[in-house]
Amino acid sequence: MTSPLQGEDRRFDSAPAHHSRRKQKMLGQNFLIDSNISKKIVDLAEISEGEKILEIGPGRGALTELLFSKGDLIAVEKDKWLAVVLKQKFRESAEIIEDDILTWDVPPIDVIVANLPYSISSPILFRLFNYEWNRAILMFQEEFANRLVAKPGSKIYGRLSVMANHFASTKKLFKVSKTAFQPQPKIHSQVVKLVRREPDYDLDDFDTFEKVVRSIFTHRRKKIRNCIRLTFPEIDVQNLKYMDLRAENLNPSEIAELSNLIFALKSE
Ligand code: SAM
Question: Which superfamily, per CATH, for 206-267?
Answer without folding.
Answer: rRNA adenine dimethylase, C-terminal domain (1.10.8.100)
